[in-house]
Design goal:
With 156 residues, the protein is mainly alpha-helical. It is 71% helix and 0% strand. It has one domain (1-110). The N and C termini lie far apart (57 Å).
Amino acid sequence: MTGLYINAVTYVCLVISVGLIVDFLLHIVLRYVETTRGSKEDRVKQTLETMGASILLGGLSTLLGILPLAFSTSAVMRTIFTGLCAMLVLAISHGLILLPVLLSMVGPLPGSNTSSTTGESVGEMHSSTDSDSDFWESSKCMHSDSVSDLHLKASF
């Protein structure tokens, strides 16, 4: 449709664009899951009221950031602009139109956001700071070399 061929430039552009799409969609899903009051439709409405403007502004600012690429004389830069612009439109439309409709029809019910393996809720999983600190303590370097010793060893 746009006359672009699959090459290294379009592939990199596609990978970056998929990251944007995932980012927009996960913001909506996370806010929907965090909202615990009301029906599915009420939760979607509250999600769009709180996150919809942020996602739209994020998409528009990204569009403004890539807009100068449209005026470039380089074919590579125009390829990047075309790919990012198309995927940006898809990301915004999926995040603000398609996903909210799907969540209002088949989204999880309030209170069903428990983990199936441990039985902990999402909030309880994030509040375990003791296990987090134990992890960081155990992942520290076990060697007795100091930073200056490592620097001296690396320089020889």
